[in-house]
């Protein structure tokens, strides 16, 4: 079974987001051991780059060097749901822990992007980072349904 950790900046503030993520975590239990680790966000203040740098240091400190690391960034490679499913299947076969990294409102620091194995973008649209966490767990669930040839029911 794939061991997957989502490393995300900030706590989910909205109840509907927490409930949605919890629902998909529950649905994912037959497919993956999923853990979500929240990194404290930094105040944006007058310079969002300062927040990004501070968050980047916290992310780098929490990154597991022996894990396969993927970061989500608008400049990354785009994947379809089927390509993500294939990617998950490859990671599952490798048997290596996977670390998925979501930045805060200012994005990810260059030092984080420089350390990961891959950078992926889900869309050319911009999503709030907290909503993206829900979108990500839904897409992971969809990916495993695709991999197993199971129907996807909402």
Q: Helix count, per DSSP?
A: 5
For CATH, the homologous superfamily is named as SPOUT methyltransferase, trefoil knot domain
pLDDT averaged over residues: 94
Shape: globular
Q: How many whole angstroms does the radius of gyration measure?
A: 15 Å
Instruction: Please give the order of strands in the largest beta sheet.
Output: 2-1-4-3-5
Q: How many independent structural domains?
A: 1
Give, in order, the helices and strands: EHEHEHEHEH
What's the architecture in CATH terms? Answer: 3-Layer(aba) Sandwich
Question: Your description of this structure?
Answer:
The chain is an alpha/beta fold and 154 residues long. The chain has a single domain, classed as 3-Layer(aba) Sandwich (Alpha/beta knot). Helices cover 45% and strands 23% of the residues. The protein has 5 helices and 5 strands; from the N terminus they run E-H-E-H-E-H-E-H-E-H. It has helices at residues 15-28, 48-62, 81-94, 110-115, 129-148, and strands spanning 2-9, 32-39, 68-78, 98-102, 118-121. Strands 2-1-4-3-5 form a 5-stranded parallel beta sheet. Helix 1 (15-28) runs parallel beside helix 5 (129-148). The longest helix is centred in the C-terminal third of the chain and has 20 residues, at 129-148.
Quick take:
This protein is of the alpha/beta class and 154 residues long. Helices cover 45% and strands 23% of the residues.
